[in-house]
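Reminder to self: tokens first, then the designed residues, so the page reads top to bottom the way the pipeline ran.
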């Protein structure tokens, strides 16, 4: 979301089901007390904490996926 990816793209990148990403987004919305993901992205950018959400998918053996 921070890098303007769709929910489907995020799921594919991280090799998880679409419903998993949607559930995680709903959880973030509740925690941030927001209604839209754009509000969360704006808040993260304002707080300059986007680096906390940068991650590369990791294989089960611990190696990064290229």
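Designed residues (66 positions):
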């Amino acid at each position: 979301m921070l890098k303007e990816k769709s929910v489907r793209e995020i799921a594919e990148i991280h090799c998880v089901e679409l419903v998993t990403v949607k559930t995680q987004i709903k959880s973030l919305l509740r925690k941030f007390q927001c209604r839209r993901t754009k509000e969360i992205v704006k808040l993260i950018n304002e707080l300059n904490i986007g680096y906390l959400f940068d991650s590369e998918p990791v294989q089960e053996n611990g190696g990064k996926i290229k």
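DSSP finds three helices and no strands in the chain.
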